[in-house]
Amino acid sequence: MLVPLPVREVMQSPARTIDPDKSVVEAARRLRDEGIGSLVVERDGDCVGIITESDVVAVTAEEGDTRALTVGDVMATALVTIGPDADIEAAVERLRTHGVKKLPVVEDGELVGIVTTTDISRYVPHLAHPKPSREVKPERRRFTRPDTLYENDDWEFESYGTADGIDVGDHVRFSKTLSEVDVERFAEVSGDTNRLHLDDAFAEAGRFGRRIVHGTLVSGIISAALARLPGMTIYLSQELSYRGPVDIGERVTAHCEVVEQLQANRFRLATAVDDADGDCVVEGDAVVISDPIPETG
């Protein structure tokens, strides 16, 4: 499993720059020829602004003839930057707060790179979507399961909805302890015998200093939660980011909430898994089909 990534590991470096006295036409040509979406504007080594494809399109639509305009005439001067050691979720928060899509990365007053929403989405695609709610909505009633083959005393779940089948706002929680036996069985069944999960001495010398649960085993708890939604739920896709490790023997809880109806029987859900302290360790979204439960003799 991964730990939060610093911006320096996902940023583009070096950042492409341009002088504010250069023409807008030259900036447009560079954006096109270099296949990039922005140029950081520097004067005497200082960042003074940024010009993007959107800026060029907007000024062209407004002015028509841009040959007399310089980069300094159209650049955005309210420059929002971030440091290379900030984690990418801090970068996401800054992008959202300021309504921008690109952050120049500055270290000790020097431009060292640029990070964009596209760069970040490769690592944390779920951040574009809502997070599942942890609160029970009072208008929803609790469901019991007529279709799971069996339950276990260690498992706990709550499934809430308004009617048979799935509707936007329905949600489910499922908790279980991920034991030593679970980890050993998962390694055998999946073939993932990475020593990080199975060998104490090996794991102690690694990034986490101890053995941890397989990331895919942790995220599998989401599937268990989805199985307890009203109706018969069938996975179509699952998008995930791993945000932290889970210790062997730790109790985890999956949360899933229906956030969008895509078609008559297809839905998108915000999904997450929390560790025993309530910290999110896996996050993403899923698309599922919800069919009626078949009637059996």
Automatic annotation (TrEMBL):
GO biological process: fatty acid biosynthetic process
Domain CBS positions: 11-66, 75-133
UniProt cross-references to PANTHER family, sorted A to Z: HYDROXYACYL-THIOESTER DEHYDRATASE TYPE 2, MITOCHONDRIAL, HYDROXYACYL-THIOESTER DEHYDRATASE TYPE 2, MITOCHONDRIAL-RELATED
Entry-linked Pfam families: CBS, MaoC_dehydratas
Protein name: CBS domain-containing protein
Keywords, comma-separated and alphabetical: CBS domain
One function term, GO molecular function aspect: (3R)-hydroxyacyl-[acyl-carrier-protein] dehydratase activity
InterPro entries, per database record: CBS_dom, CBS_dom_sf, HotDog_dom_sf, MaoC-like_dom, UPF0336/Enoyl-CoA_hydratase
